[in-house]
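Worked Example 4.2. Consider the chain below.
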Amino acid sequence: MKKVVFSLALATLAFGYAATANAATSASQTITGTLNPFVSVSTVEGATTSISINNDGTLSTNLTPGFKFTSNNKTGASATFTVKVNTSDGNQVDAIAGTSNSTNGKIVLANASTLPLAASVRDALTDAPTVENNANAISYTVSFSVDNTNNGDVPLFDTTGNAVSGTVLKKNGTSQITMNIDKSVRTNTYSVDDVAGSYQATIYCTSATL
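Applying the procedure from the previous section yields the following structure tokens:
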């Protein structure tokens, strides 16, 4: 009986040595974090967005609202710009117009308290406005520019003529789009029929990764 017990003890000890000899002495494990593509847009600090209107309809200086785009997407990002004003008809209407594939167009500032008719805004955006038909809607020329053509393209008016869009980033990085609103008033869009007050337009910008 003692012999059997001794033999079992030796067998157990031998198995323990074998298990120790076969155990791994190193290991590795991969950890992963996924960074999704993104694009963000913000308004440009220091841009000229508030001025006075002279008694001949001209602006005291050019308006230069701008938007900054940032993206980590290697194929870049796109953006679309629209401009709206409130009207006495009870809704917002387009306040920018241009020829398809052009960077230049026309924009309207509308009286914020004595609202214009929608028809007044549309007339002020035509190529041949009639001053009697656009009270409280004053029109100026507008163009778009990009700060670095290596990073992004200048957006263009689309086929509707009421929106501007394009590839504002051609790769990951940053770019800035500026709207340059000339201080000169467009002919036949300003008169004493334009009631004193604050004239405004709201610029909307939406962006997406490509």
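Residues 2-22 form the longest helix (21 residues). The chain has one domain: 57-209. Compare this with Example 4.1 before moving on.
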